[in-house]
Amino acid sequence: MIGRLFGRILQKSPPMLLIDVQGVGYEVEAPMSTFYQLPETGAEIHLYTHLVVRDDAHLLFGFATENERHLFRSLIKVNGVGAKMGLTILSGIEAEDFVRCIRDGDSARLTRLPGVGKKTAERLIIEMRDRLKNLNIACDSSPVHGKDTTASGSQTDDAVSALVALGYKPQEASRFVHAVTTPEMSSEEIIRKALKASVSK
């Protein structure tokens, strides 16, 4: 099991990262909550990781904090929630808001996340309630190494691609992105605002 990576960012294409670890390039999928904390391309980072082994692929997921990885591991234990959906949930809703939804039984807000239907939302509430007691969501929120405040390439295109990769339909992704985009915003800022808009309606 690969539990941690320390290396240099070669490429950022949300939700995918390419990290150089002593000459080996690791493709890592990360939730947007981790992307928001990443430094610029070329900088060194460390990520806590979780390896998913399937018949057709080995998928590596990366997280800024151990707490975030614990939450991901708890999510994928819920019946009907796979690794991709776990990534989408962590990307689409802040951990504190997710905990609030679980504690308050707010299935309506959870169903605004792509791929989360009413039954899945109800299962999340039932199965995650006890597991959340073992997680301290408010702690361990230090950045990976500092944020990247500069944008590269087409920020809106990058943001739309990221939302589509997280499960949103292309038209939905484009609508959310263009509704929140302003000049000088980085792609990470656009994605953050678009995801918030998608679950608040």
How does this model look, in words?
- The protein has helices at residues 32-35, 66-75, 83-92, 95-104, 107-110, 118-131, 155-165, 170-180, 187-200; strands at residues 4-13, 16-21, 24-29, 44-53, 58-63.
- Helix 2 (66-75) packs across helix 3 (83-92) and helix 8 (170-180) crosses helix 9 (187-200).
- The protein folds into 3 domains: 4-63, Nucleic acid-binding proteins (OB fold (Dihydrolipoamide Acetyltransferase, E2P)); 66-134, 5' to 3' exonuclease, C-terminal subdomain (DNA polymerase, domain 1); 155-196, Helicase, Ruva Protein, domain 3 (Orthogonal Bundle).
- It contains 9 helices and 5 strands; from the N terminus they run βββαββαααααααα.
- Helices cover 44% and strands 19% of the residues.
- The longest helix is centred in the middle third of the chain and has 14 residues, at 118-131.
- Strand 4 and strand 5 (58-63) form a beta hairpin.
- With 201 residues, the chain is α+β, with helices and mostly antiparallel strands.
- Strands 3-2-1-4-5 form a 5-stranded antiparallel sheet, with helices on one face.
Descriptive labels:
9 helices; 19% strand; alpha+beta; DNA polymerase, domain 1; 3 domains; 201 residues; 44% helix; OB fold (Dihydrolipoamide Acetyltransferase, E2P); Helicase, Ruva Protein, domain 3; single chain; globular
